[in-house]
Amino acid sequence: MGMQITSDKVFDDIEHHFKISAGPGAGKTHWLVQHIKNVLGKSKRLGKTRKIACITYTNVAVDTIVKRLGNATHHVEVSTIHSFLYKHLIKPYAKFIAQEYDLNVSNIDGHDEHIVYFNIVKKWIENHSQKSLFKHPNSEKQLLKIKYETIKQWLETIYYELTDSNDIALSTDKNKNFFSNKIQPKHQINRKCLDMLEKDLIEYKKIYWKKGILHHDDILFFSYQIISKCPFVLDVLRAKFPYFFIDEFQDSNPIQVEIIKKISEKETIIGVIGDQAQSIYGFQGADPKQFSELELPEMRNYEMAQNRRSTDNIINTLNSVRSDLLQHPYRKVCGMKPVIFCGNSNDAYKEALKLSNNKKVVTLSRDNITSNAMRREFGNGNLKDKLFSDLKNNDSSKDRRKFVIHYLKGVVFAKERKFKEAIKEIMVLYKSTIEDKEERKKRALNDLLCLLKKYDDYSNASLMVFYELLKRELDNQISKFQKNSNAKSFYENHTFQELALCVNIPEDSSDHRTIHKAKGDEFNNVLLVLKKEEDLAFILKPDLEKEEQRIAYVAISRAQERLFISVPTLKESKKASLSKLFEIKEFET
Ligand SMILES: Nc1ncnc2c1ncn2[C@@H]1O[C@H](COP(=O)(O)OP(=O)(O)OP(=O)(O)O)[C@@H](O)[C@H]1O
């Protein structure tokens, strides 16, 4: 149990490690900003090169904290953990470990998402140490020709794992089944073969590293290796950052936690802030226990029991879901009783707007396709969420596919005002033909402007119309379709919009987002869009040990004034228990 404080609390003693745990809307981020100002005022340990590091989860959260700090940003560095480690560890010190990992330091240029490329997989398998053991039906040729898609899906699950001896090993998702389940029999790979392949995962990574390509996870991996192998780097880091505060700590990667523990051993004061019930990044290795169980020498523990965000009615709902914490309303505004809409989610959205006096209602969805559909006012009845893989299965011309997909994504990002991401998508197409990066950027920008100008010509038409426009305007060389081919009919029978709906918008800050992208944020009116009535389990049978339920809890806790939930159907038997907390409204189907 920690000592109870409120978000107004000002610490006189700023020289102890601390942990603050509190529920949603308690004022954790508010307190953090005030605490940074407090430390700036009191500390004798800051200076031109000695700053407070403030780590938060997304770039959107970084901007929010920077804005809230106002003029007080002088001796503060606010960033995500990846940008922080890249700037202070990878850039200056990667050279010390480069040889061991075949890392081409001079070519490193930021870090990207891990994308599995055929040529890299081919090179890896051709040089694999266990190659002689790959036998029919998993011979080298079969793996690369028939089973490549399965290998690709498997490699997409690569992650770093902390071992018991505190080393880091590369691993893959063992829960996903790559040799049975939905995969067609001829594409299956048996466990034994995957285990053999897994022995050389580091060699697979090294092919990227030799080119200077780093993935997001590699930043944590190399940072950990740098501080383990060159401990003086830790002293430099501690000298530069006498204070190190981390918001949303419950979603830290375990390797990040180890790095922080090492920093905390001397000199630097570590402060962590979080809520274990809001841990929603399990798929990236986060575990709610790593926050609740974190212990640092002489660390002080605090808790906040208020909820400063929401109305009494919303806090009642939050309290009913959560058994480890009872939040007290701070605002003491009763507010509207939350509403469950039963029926089509677009009708729910329209009704929610009406009930919110036509003010902004933010919709939160579990997956990208639903949030994209809400954005474009599509119904939730008929969405096809596998269209990119269907495209791949139907169009065997890799160059043509790549050409269409990158341009399509570029257009979708630009329409969401994500211009940097849009240009990056299109630049990929010039990677092998234009060596100079600035030149590639210029070409991509020109292409993008051309496509945006002609948006009305293809945005409501078939994918074929989009392809023909690309061919006409941007690259005449791209291959034509064969008569009566599967590819041709796929392009004719799917629309640009259908594929656009499947695009994942990075760091989405629009009114229609996934729940993960609403983390830390708050909105007057929230509509949580559930895909099926079973998803109401978090209210009917709450168990926040389950990550799916924590995700729903994060969603409803974003609401300040009005909370709405949309479900397609609702059994009579459930209505009675829901009606205590919710108004229930049904639409004709
Ligand atoms: N002491 C305070 N004075 C004024 N406003 C406050 C105070 N504490 C919190 N608030 C306001 O209450 C709301 C919730 O605070 P904040 O976003 O910091 O909560 P949080 O604990 O970080 O929430 P979550 O875990 O849900 O992200 C914000 O609008 C914030 O500005």
Task: Output the number of helix runs.
Answer: 26
Q: Which ligands appear in the coordinates?
A: adenosine-5'-triphosphate
Largest sheet: 7 strands, parallel
* Secondary-structure-derived class: alpha/beta
* Silhouette: globular
Helicity, as a percent range: 40-55%
- Strand element count: 17
The stretches of 5 or more residues where confidence is low (pLDDT under 50) are none
| Strand content bin | 5-15%
Give the assembly state of these chains: single chain
Task: Tell me the strand order in the biggest sheet.
Answer: 1-9-2-8-7-3-4
Distance between the termini: 50 Å
Rg over CA atoms? 26 Å
Mean pLDDT: 91
Organism: Halosquirtibacter laminarini
Protein name: ATP-dependent helicase
Keywords: ATP-binding, Helicase, Hydrolase, Nucleotide-binding
Which features would summarize this protein structure in a list?
globular, alpha/beta, ATP-dependent helicase, nucleotide-binding, binds adenosine-5'-triphosphate, helicase, 26 helices, 589 residues, 7-stranded parallel beta sheet
Summarize this structure briefly.
Helix 11 links the parallel strand 7 and strand 8.
What this model shows, in words?
The relative contact order is 0.12. Helix 18 (419-427) crosses helix 19. The chain is of the alpha/beta class and 589 residues long. The protein is globular, with a radius of gyration of 26 Å. Helix content is 42%, strand content 13%. It has a 7-stranded parallel β-sheet. Strands 14-13-15-16-12-17 form a 6-stranded parallel β-sheet, with helices on both faces. Strands 5-6 form a two-stranded antiparallel ribbon. The model has no long low-confidence stretch (mean pLDDT 91). Adenosine-5'-triphosphate (ATP) binds next to helix 1. It comes from Halosquirtibacter laminarini. Keywords: ATP-binding, Helicase, Hydrolase, Nucleotide-binding. This is ATP-dependent helicase.
